[in-house]
Amino acid sequence: MPESAPRRRPLPLIGQVGGGRSRATCRLRCGDACFHPAPNTSDNPYFGDVFATALSRRTALRAGAVTAGAGALGLSALNPAMADPRGPSRPHPSPRPTFKSVQPNTDDKVTIPNGYDQHVVIRWGDPVLPGAPEFDVHHQSPEAQARQFGYNCDYVGFHQLDDDHALLWVNHEYTNEDLMFPGYTDGDSATEEQVRTAMAAHGGSIVELERDGRTGKWVVSKGERAFNRRITADTPIRLTGPAAGHELLRTDEDPGGTLVRGMLNNCAGGMTPWGTFLTAEENFNQYFANGSGSAEARRYGLGTGSSGRRWERFEKRFDLAENPNEANRFGYIVEIDPLDPGSEPRKHTMLGRFKHEGANSRLAEDGRVVVYMGDDERFDYMYKFVSAKKYVEGSRRHNLTLLDSGTLYVARLSGDSPAGEIDGSGALPADGEFDGSGEWIALCTDTESFVDGFGVAEVLVHTRLAADTVGATKMDRPEDFECSPVTGKVYCALTNNSAREPGQTDEPNPRGPNRYGHILEIVEEGSDAAATAFSWSVPLVCGNPEDADTYYAGFDKSKVMPISCPDNLSFDKDGNLWISTDGQPGSLGINDGLHVMPVEGRFRGELKTFATVPVGAEACGPFITEDGRTVFLAPQHPGDDGSFEEPTSTWPDGDMPRPSVVCIWHKGGREVGR
Ligand code: FEO
Ligand code: CA
Ligand code: CA
Ligand code: CA
């Protein structure tokens, strides 16, 4: 057997208790989203014959008008110079990762393949801004934390300044106060100092890095670090786009409805062709108390009681009884310009409001920018934004306006196999594939709504409710999207859906319950990202490959590794899909990890495990540098179900768990995975 061929040990016979995470992470990250009834109670059908669903004549006509317009534009200019910087650009090289898979494990460390090395780049509490004190877990304060690296790292972005310098962007999704503060019990007894420290540990960080010699190792820059920045739950953020200033967004503190304090629960994100970072507010609902119980509040999971962290005790903006519109100001895609440390971050209302997982952009054939976005909730939807204006190379000022106008779409999918052949077991239909077609349904442009009863601002603030009315397809928690730089195909991670019953399955969501998740592959019509029609297939149905309900694109399942709960996606230069996971401990009894799978050629489906993360952690990031020599990985929430006094992980330093970012490179200078 060649060294590259995977050898797989049997999985432990423990922990196969269902998709998902430890109880602590569910409570702190998502506000126990999976323990509440799924908030999508719309009567959108589950089955693939949704094309029979009646669109209102008005909706259909207007959506059709937009489709026709987009088509005309798409034909107008096919200038290769305008091609997506990350779009199809070179012949497909028939790639195959050659490293030897890391074995499934429950070790409290980051495990990487033989021949590779790793470095902890930055940890929770490390200094970021001038004047930041060194981390001292017994003397943390809001002032110190606002200058230090925040908690739970999720999305990792990387903007390379030159061969040896770069800016790292990291989301700080949420806080685990049980691990951050000695003696912490709950939100009711939390001190104001603890609450404000936790608020300062949310948000994101920009950190200057430099290359260590000529290797793939990157370290925190020792120089001036003028670009370093912290965004917290208190940083002023500008609302932009068509809904900015609308009465739904006005509060006593901000009567103009255009300036929000902070961003919350930023999960994944993406980079734009013009070099900014997009960061996605996800489970924002859990920070708010005393919701009204209205249909809008229920659809977004806003509870009627107190919040878990009880921030409303110290900041009345989190009390919806007093500030009913404040929650309308969260749940957006936020754009950060790393090259302008003084710039205001911007919440883009044009990209809709939901539990945004990420935002991955590319250029359409005619130069318009397209952003793919998932709403990470059981039975929620996939979205796409297409800008009105075109990207202009070198015109930064112009490009910074592209996300303010355009069209917001939601996806509707249809299978090509008879519904009776999709029985919920994961068994393939007679045509051998879960596949079919789909369309992007226009919800609104910046000037016109296509949803009956909704104005433009209502669509953009109550996006879930607008999408409920047009027959969008209920998906199994759409997480990250990513576009192949080699083929232009688009991939979406559907992480799991424990609530989907066998009778609710359809071809794009073929298992009920779906404890292990799957990957969706989308081919836009004409390979144009702005198209309103697409075909789709499911190349990977996750789980233990020894189980009949898994599918690895038809590859020999005795030669692949287990994977569960796909979350974040990335591509290497060869067009291999890198998949990080969030939920392997609860579903397979093994640590989460980073896997690599070719999606083209004869090795399509040959999934290998490149790295595993410490006990309790999910594997976030990943990001592969443009030279292909470094992969960044962010093990989030190590030791998530422990306490300060009784940690269940001591990664990375052997004393206590600290969410951190690591970089991994080949000792011989090879591109990662090669
Ligand atoms: Fe924060 Fe959808 O994961
Ligand atoms: Ca089929
Ligand atoms: Ca995620
Ligand atoms: Ca996650």
From TrEMBL:
SUPFAM superfamilies with a match to the protein in the record: YVTN repeat-like/Quinoprotein amine dehydrogenase (SSF50969)
One Pfam family here: PhoX
Signal peptide: none
Disordered: annotated span: 79-109, 638-657
PANTHER family on file: DUF839 DOMAIN-CONTAINING PROTEIN (PTHR35399:SF2), SLR8030 PROTEIN (PTHR35399)
The protein's name: Phosphatase
Biological classification of the source: Bacteria, Bacillati, Actinomycetota, Actinomycetes, Streptosporangiales
